[in-house]
Amino acid sequence: MSPLTTTLLTAAALAVACATLSVFVVARRWAFIGEGIAHSGFGGAGTAWLLALLFPALDGPEMQWLPYCGVVVFAGLTAVGIGAVTRGGRAGSDTAIGIFMVASVAWGFVAREAYVAHRHAQPAGWNAFFFGDPGQADPAFAAAAVLVSAAVVATVALLGKEILAYCFDPATAEAGGVRAGFVHYLLILLVTATIVVGTRVVGSILVTALLVLPGATSLALSRKLSVAVGGAVALGLVAAVVGVLASTKVPYLTTGPAIVLLLFGAFVVVFVVKRVRRA
Predict the structure, then answer these.
(1) 239-248 in b/e burial notation, b at 16+ Cβ within 10 A?
(2) Which domains does the chain have, with CATH numbers?
(3) How much is the pTM?
């Protein structure tokens, strides 16, 4: 499999997963919960950098995977923490983000400064964490991205109505027989898995855009669940493929920003067209 094919497959799988969840993230107003989970991974990368300082054997080129493993662990722990704090209205999502994200980011920056002070170089994965590096995606990672995407699509196909009912009104959904607690943690788990994949492709700064823009654009066109999800997936796929191909042709255009700008452009067009029609 060529590097371009691997990148296209990974980006397409990420786009499908993000777009499928995007409708529910927008409906539940979870955009900044996704932001919190994404940025909290920085604390995991920082922990890996400190371990590399303590154990020099972990600091070799063959250990480039270690910071990403830290991101996965911290993102998962943060997701559980946010899920527990926000469940049942114990606290708002902004409070949950304030509790977990800022502490993780602060820890990551302290660890990064400690690494630079001792090694006089930037730690492995520093730039990739914030801005992504799809060129590092190998066939194994592409396969993992496809599996995550398939799990997201299958879950939404089976439980889409229950998830939507929970997103719009958790209390009413639970009164109607929906297992709101199960749906709450399941949705956070799916968002977290998608963010973990997306961080490596487009970076933690931009991955939230992939979880918001397709759904926001599609919901502006239709409130029917199947149409909204289908439109979001189609938009995400087109933006991912065009963004990857454009980044191979334009030297200064990287994949993540290209995809996000395409999605933003589509949202602006839909927004303007709707305003013109209303006028």
Answers:
(1) bbbebbbbbe
(2) 3-278 (1.10.3470.10)
(3) 0.86
